[in-house]
Every structure is written in structure tokens, then in C-alpha cells.
Amino acid sequence: MDDEQDLCEILLYNLEAAGFQVEAAYSGEEALEKDPSQYDLLILDVMMPGMSGFELAERLKSQPVTNTLPIIFLTAKDTEDDTLQGFGLGADDYVTKPFSIREVVARVKAVLARSQKREVKESHITFEGLVLDLGNKTTTVDGESVSLTKTEFELLGLLLQHRGQVFSRQQIFDAVWPENVVVSDRTVDVNITRMRKKIGRYGSYIVSRQGFGYVFEG
Question: Is the pLDDT confidence value at 122 over 90?
Fold first, then answer.
């Protein structure tokens, strides 16, 4: 979804050529009218007439029916603060203009692959009052439901399933992100920082070992 119609048409053409079913909206309000819960992924611009992309993402992440919907921001807002705000709102990726259409298609494939990745054998992972339901992809903290993005959920699941094991950032990349997708150390750090805040008192169990990586100590 983007307020620049020409860019939308180019994206639509190339995503359809890659095998995706795609629809466009030209404002946040129009996107809401289309019922976002029916889609597998949203591509949002930040600067749109009326409701901004950030405002739309915040609204979607606050609603149970759409709070796990993958979101990619595609925007000219390229400062570090903008990027952190996007990830802080639950974005799965943040792409700044100018970009190549091939890159966008690759990132869409990567986010969708990540969201569908890895069948799990156990139905729940628990630590005291922290419970991950791997079948329903839900998280509760001391009986209260917590909304995690797919990336945050997989990160927490990895660390929680292997308590006491230190994972390097590269190991986390390999386990959580699809092959052939390049992400920075900061991407891992941002996702873990955001996830720590969401799980309340249990966030303190996720410890950074300088020079090594992350571990769930408990």
C-alpha cells in the first residue's frame, strides 16, 4: 500500500509476476475498509494522506485479529529513529527508498517464509508463568495475553527451548531468519529489546553475553 500510484502499479505487477495475489490501497483508511485480517502480509508506506503508515500499524497491532499480521514498511523515511519506530511498532522489515523492485520481492518472500517457517513438535514451552503455545502461536505472561510478532515469537521460542545455551547472533540469524536474507546485528538486538519489554519481568532472564550473544538464564 502506498500513496504513489505509479509505484503501487509497479509493485503490483512485479509481485503478481512472482506468483502473489496482491491488492493496493492508497490510504490507511482505504486499507482498513479492505479488512486487513484477510491478508498474509501488508506493505505500508509511512507518509500517506490521512492516517500514516505508523498509525495504521499501531492500530493493527493493537487488535487481536491482526496483531500477528506481518508488516513491511516501504518508505522514504530513512533515519535511524524512523527505522526504530517502525520496528518498535512490530514491523517485520523496513525498506527505505530508493530500492530495487527485486529487493522488495525478495524481502516479501523472506518475511512470508519466516512467518510460515518450521513446524514445531511440542505444543507449549513454559517457564514459570511464561507460556508459548506453539500450535496457536500465542504467548501469555502470568495469565495475561501478550502480542508478539512472528520474529519475536520465534526468537523467544529459540531461547526458551534451550535455556542456559548461549546463541551467537549468527546462530540466531540461522535459526530465525530464512536463508540468503541478510540482516544486521542491530536487527537482532532491536527485536530482542522489543520482545524483552513485552514479556515483562521475564525479560530480565534474557541476558546479553558481551562478545558471545544471548542466553535465557533460568
Answer: no
